[in-house]
Write a structure and sequence with these properties.
Structural class of chain B: mainly alpha
Largest sheet of chain A: none
Distance between the termini of chain B: 27 Å
Strand content of chain B: under 5%
Number of strands of chain A: 0
Number of helices of chain A: 2
Helix content of chain B: 55-70%
Largest interface: A-B, 26 and 27 residues
Radius of gyration of chain B: 19 Å
Order of helices and strands of chain A: HH
Strand content of chain A: under 5%
Structural class of chain A: mainly alpha
Number of helices of chain B: 8
Order of helices and strands of chain B: HHHHHHHH
Oligomer: heterodimer
Shape of chain A: elongated
Chain lengths: 89, 203
């Protein structure tokens, strides 16, 4: 288990990269809803994003409510630092 | 409905405090061309927007502006944390401190409180999209002005990201304006207001 543990900083950077790709192409698709290339691009990065968010939640705590740890003995959503704090994302 | 994601859209990691520059950057939180006004502008305008592409863009850009507001607040917070009374007086941040301590409060660099009069929601798609394109350019100029004053690369980097997003949003609003005009009479775009003069043929 521990040998497969990803590097926290690298995984977070990857989440930022794939999330930005989704954010940016989402706006493009709003005004170009029929663009096939953009639709495929969106689909690819959306999948990568969902996978990376699940990975992150598994090892370092949830970034979204959908990946929050349940069942658990403690409400881990409040456990990790908030984004503006030291050690935050 | 919104869901919170516990990360910034783009990282903000500032190690050196600088209350003087924080006082300038806070304008992009609660100033006339700041991110709060941007978000409220687009999220207010979208309810009566008759074209689905444009309703989508108003919703999605309005949402992204909330993420930008959070980044600006993170920058201001990290520039002002753990200040001593001496640093407060020396930097001129004491006038803000007396009313808000080190909390975030939406105001302009000059101290004017945030107000809904910073934006318009006019109920006419051509008018609102011109407002939005102008707003993105005004925010871009404000970030340019900030970048002339900032020397710390840890502050410049996220500010440059935010500046670039203004340009992308300007582009998308331009495309939205074209979509609106494609639905209207090309001989007279102003013959009707499609948000009010409900003629299904005009949509």
């Amino acid at each position: 288990m521990t040998e497969n543990k990803p590097n926290r900083h690298e995984l977070l950077e990857w989440i930022n990269v794939v999330s930005f790709a989704v954010d940016d192409v989402k706006l493009f698709l709003d005004t170009h809803p029929c663009n096939q290339e953009a639709l495929e691009y969106f689909d690819e990065f959306k999948k990568q994003r969902i996978h990376a968010l699940k990975e992150y939640a598994k090892y370092f705590g949830p970034l979204t409510l959908d990946t929050a740890c349940t069942p658990a003995e403690y409400w881990c959503w409040i456990n990790e630092p908030w984004p503006w704090q030291e050690g935050g994302c | 409905m919104w869901n919170y994601e516990k990360r910034l859209q783009h990282p903000v990691k500032i190690t050196q405090t600088n209350p003087k520059i924080a006082q300038v950057i806070i304008s992009q939180f609660g100033g006339p061309d700041g991110e709060l006004a941007a978000s409220m502008r687009y999220l207010s305008q979208r309810y009566t927007m008759p074209y689905k592409e444009v309703t989508g863009i108003l919703t999605d850009i309005g949402t992204e502006e909330l993420a930008h507001m959070e980044m600006v607040c993170a920058i201001v917070h990290q520039l002002t944390r753990n200040l001593t009374p001496e640093q407060l007086v020396e930097s001129g941040f004491d006038k803000y401190y007396v009313d808000h301590t080190l909390a975030l409060w939406p105001q302009s660099a000059g101290g004017a409180p945030w107000t809904a009069t910073y934006f318009q929601s006019k109920g006419d798609p051509i008018t609102d999209l011109h407002e939005n394109m102008a707003a993105e350019q005004k925010a871009r100029t404000t970030y340019d002005n900030i970048l002339r004053l900032v020397k710390d690369p840890e502050v410049c980097e996220p500010i440059r990201f935010l500046r670039e997003r203004e340009i992308v949003h300007y582009q998308r609003f331009g495309e939205s304006l074209r979509i609106v005009q494609d639905h209207l009479d090309s001989k007279n775009f102003y013959a009707i207001n499609p948000e009010f003069d409900l003629n299904p043929k005009c949509r």
